[in-house]
Amino acid sequence: MMRWAIVLSVILACAVGVVWAGAEEAGPQSATATAAAAAMYLEETVVGTMLEAQRMYAVGMMEWWLGELRVDTVESEETTLEAGQGLRLRYQVKRGTAPLLKAGAGDLVRGALRRPAEVEGGEWTAGELQVLGRGELVNPGEGAAEDLGSPEAQVLVKMLAPAGIDCHRTTAVLLREVAEREGERVRVQIFDMQRPEGRREMLRERLRCATVLVNNRMTFALEGEEGAREVVLSHKPNEERSTYNSEDVITVIEQELRRLYPEDREAEE
Fold first, then answer.
1. Which tens digit of pLDDT belongs to each residue from 37-64?
2. How many angstroms separate the Cα of 108 from the Cα of each of 77, 104, 132, 181, 240?
3. Which of 18, 45, 129, 156 has the fewest Cβ atoms within 10 angstroms?
4. Which helix (H) or strand (E) holds 254?
């Protein structure tokens, strides 16, 4: 009995030694293989604006989408990307995700991207993208009740609201005045939510309430004597609980003009 116990101990010791030796031998090789695999891919973490997006197919609980992403900022320390660069991107969306949380055209997103290093200009892939809000984008609509100003303007204002309501009518009057005054630099599109064309544009923009979009965005920080003040150009303006006044829309436009047409500001000074 004792002899069998000794034999069994020897066998176990040999087995452990073989496994340990194998682990020691495989460890460096495994690390090398991992490093080699990593070198085969470029990985970047970026914040950017989706220029277009469409659903491709679903696998299990995940949907695969294909889109174009404009890089706005790169968070990786070492990068091959530049702000303003356009990337073809394949990314995942979990089934059942709320529509406003699905990365779609016009959304500002953050994500970790990856592509094969040897494919110059190849397609990038990503897991789920974090939707941060609406990105900056000149994205004209179709079927506007009024379309004023130059199609070449760098500032596009889209007002989507029911016609005939006093608070929105005040905003529309101010926007017509801006378009007449700044027609070369500002384009104004006014959509009536009560008409089929307006409802289609609301659906395209994934909006549920009356909104004014300035280059696709509705949330802005306005500088004043008492510091910065955030305005959200959505719902009804000019009321006690409103998130903006009609005049705030004009202030936003003027602020964007100074930013997007710096040469004009320098000439004025």
1. 556 889 999 999 999 999 999 999 999 9
2. 21, 9, 5, 31, 30
3. 18
4. helix 246-260
